[in-house]
Structure formats: structure tokens, C-alpha cells
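User: Reviewer 2 asked us to show a designed sequence for the structure in our supplementary figure. I'm pasting the C-alpha cells here. Could you produce the per-position amino acids so we can include them in the response letter?
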């Protein structure tokens, strides 16, 4: 799937109005109140990827400026352009000129601004002060703790959450209707399990699946996403609970090879399935989760994936023996 095709698909279903934004109801209501008054403070949008931060920023610009919104809206991705020169040149040049139309300010949207260097953030702090009359900033980040406190104090902070299941299902139904796709109930559950509230990931998986078949099934979703089906991971854990190390190891290796999973991918899916084991009590589940964290840490530090996974399975058996 070409990256430009995914971008076109995402833009096609991007909301153009506040009423179309899924999830984040409280945030949308407060931001819409700012727009109606044609005045707003600097905004800081913090939260995980794919939950609507950029989309809401574009809706704000469209509703404030109408058809000429692109002339009064500057979007920069700070992860690409993260140095102090960007703030001193691009941002200042745009901020110092007046807006076109009857709105008294322009909008600068800085995406992934937690990637800005400390020097760039210091320069941004002064720019935000000096050009308040002609410009408003919308800062978007995954981790607000990486933004300097003086910048946070100049902004109204909104914390975005992953989209809940009902909103994800609404988006799936909307796309399926427009694209004439058939998505069964199990496929919807699988999509939610994989995307975990990330709308961008949801759309990418759906488009990749639609390129293969018009009828989207659970098996197709897991195949496209290169993820193991929950039942396969559950079988591994059940063998551990029974004390059958060889069966658990062989099942896990087969699953990883069949789906092309890395060790870290396997750990994440194992951790999710541990909580669903009915025959294991709560204290043992906590011990198993603790061992998942230890194995993941060792993998990140460079340990051999298969040795760590075998060690993890053996610890699961000892916990449940």
C-alpha cells in the first residue's frame, strides 16, 4: 500500500465540522465555544497518536477562517524541523503579519512539539509572548512532560484519550458504508483490539484489508496487521498453566514465525492475554505481568529474543506449579 494512498484515504474521512469529530466530547465542546467567540488562548493538545489532535486543529481553522483558512494557518511538524532556526525564521515571519479576514489572529499549528530542542522551546516562549496580538499557537504532543513549564503555563492544556470502542465502531461502520465493505462483528472486535483507540491505525488496516477483499474478516485483519490471533496466544498460556513447556514453546515459535512477530510484539500480546486467563488467580497474574516487564526490559537492552521468551514461559510454569 502506497503511503500517498493512505494519506488520501485519511484525508477523505477527516472531519470538516465539530459535530463530525468522534470522541473527546468535552474537549470539542470547550474548543467550539472559543471558536464561536472568535477568540481563543494558545492551546496545548497532549495525548497518544491517532486520537484527533491534528484533526481538531484543522476543524478549528476551517470554522474560524472559512474558505480562506489555508492562508491563515501554518502547520509545521516539529519532528522534522526541530531546531531554533525554524522558530526564529518560519514561525516569526508568519506570526508577525496580520490575518486575512475578520478574525484578528492567525494560527500556527506545531505538531509533535515535544521533539523541539530546549533552545527552540525557549525561542518559542518569547515568540508566543511577543505576537499574541496577531497569532495563536496550537501545540500538539504525545508527552506534555517534555514541554517546558513556561510554555505550558501560557496555554490551555487539553489531554486527549484513546477513542472508546463505541466511537471506533461508528468509524468502522461509516467507512464500510461509503466504501461498500462488509465487516462482521468479530472483525470489528479485532480492529479495536489492534488499533487500541488509534483512529489512524484503524484506517490504515481497513484500507490495506479492503485492497485484498471487500469482505473483511477477523483472520484477514490479523493477517494484514501481522498480529497473532488471541486464541493462539491463549493456547501458549494455557500450556504454561498445565506445565507443558515443550508445547508452549513450540506453539509460540510457530505463531511468531507464521505472523512475522518480533519478540516485543509477542510480549505485548502475551501481556494482554494474561488478564483473560480464567483458571489463574489474581496474584499469579500479577507475577506473570511482572515477568513480562522484566523480559521486555532485557529485550530492549539487546538480549536474545528467543532465549528471553523461553525464559518467560519457564517462569510462567514455575508461577503456576
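Assistant: Here is a per-position design you can include in the supplement:
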Amino acid at each position: 500500500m502506497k503511503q500517498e494512498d493512505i494519506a488520501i484515504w485519511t484525508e477523505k474521512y477527516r472531519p470538516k465540522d465539530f459535530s463530525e469529530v468522534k470522541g473527546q466530547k468535552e474537549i470539542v465542546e470547550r474548543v467550539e465555544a472559543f471558536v464561536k467567540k472568535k477568540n481563543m488562548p494558545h492551546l496545548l493538545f497532549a495525548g497518544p497518536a491517532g486520537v484527533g489532535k491534528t484533526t481538531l486543529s484543522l476543524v478549528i481553522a476551517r470554522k474560524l477562517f472559512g474558505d480562506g483558512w489555508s492562508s491563515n494557518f501554518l502547520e509545521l511538524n516539529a519532528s522534522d524541523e526541530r531546531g531554533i532556526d525554524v522558530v526564529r525564521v518560519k514561525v516569526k515571519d508568519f506570526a508577525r503579519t496580520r490575518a486575512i479576514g475578520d478574525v484578528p489572529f492567525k494560527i500556527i499549528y506545531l505538531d509533535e512539539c515535544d521533539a523541539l530542542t530546549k533552545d527552540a522551546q525557549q525561542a518559542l516562549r518569547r515568540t508566543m509572548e511577543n505576537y499574541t496580538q496577531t497569532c495563536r499557537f496550537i501545540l500538539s504532543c504525545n508527552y506534555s512532560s517534555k514541554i517546558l513549564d513556561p510554555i505550558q503555563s501560557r496555554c490551555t492544556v487539553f489531554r486527549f484519550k484513546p477513542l472508546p470502542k463505541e466511537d471506533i465502531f461508528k468509524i468502522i461502520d461509516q467507512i464500510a458504508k461509503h466504501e461498500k465493505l462488509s465487516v462482521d462483528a468479530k472483525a470489528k472486535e479485532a480492529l479495536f483490539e489492534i488499533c487500541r483507540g488509534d483512529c489512524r491505525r484503524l484506517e490504515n488496516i481497513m484500507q490495506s484489508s479492503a485492497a485484498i477483499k471487500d469482505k473483511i474478516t477477523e483472520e484477514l485483519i490479523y493477517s494484514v496487521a501481522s498480529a497473532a490471533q488471541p486464541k493462539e496466544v491463549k493456547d501458549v498460556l494455557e500450556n504454561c498453566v498445565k506445565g507443558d513447556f515443550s508445547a508452549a514453546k513450540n506453539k509460540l515459535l510457530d505463531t511468531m514465525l507464521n505472523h512475522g512477530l518480533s519478540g516485543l510484539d509477542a510480549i505485548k500480546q502475551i501481556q494482554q492475554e494474561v488478564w483473560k486467563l480464567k483458571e489463574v488467580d489474581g496474584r499469579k497474574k500479577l507475577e506473570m505481568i511482572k515477568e513480562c516487564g522484566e523480559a521486555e526490559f532485557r529485550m530492549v537492552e539487546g538480549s536474545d529474543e528467543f532465549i528471553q521468551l523461553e525464559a518467560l514461559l519457564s517462569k510462567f510454569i514455575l508461577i503456576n506449579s
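For the response letter, you might also mention the following. The chain has a mean pLDDT of 84. The radius of gyration is 24 Å.
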